[in-house]
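Collaborator request, handled under Task 6.
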Amino acid sequence: MASMVNRVTSHYRFINAQKRTVALNQPLDKVDEKSLLTLATPEAQAELKDLIEHLLETLDQDDPTGELREIALLYLQEHSASAIAKKMRRRKTNILQKIHLIRLMWEKTLAP
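Structure tokens returned to the collaborator:
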């Protein structure tokens, strides 16, 4: 779970870097360091774990082979697409397509 907190923190820093804020089409809510630290609480980690499990279950419904789940887990553990492709003996472009598919599926699942 610590890597997930690091990933969120990195994403926050990336989107709010001064050189990128001009290019943003939509204003983002301000997130302060205190808010990010709340992600490290046991309650937040339990919620995050439940959310990740729910998202992985949605992948399992559409892909009974478990390949999408495996790719998603490796990607969440910060493996690169190249490393995932090498481990799964697939082409990098194939892995990138599947990562894109996973994102689309998860966005659809989380949409209100």
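The cover message to the collaborator said: "The chain has a mean pLDDT of 80. The chain has two domains: 1-40, 42-112. Please let us know whether this matches your experimental observations."
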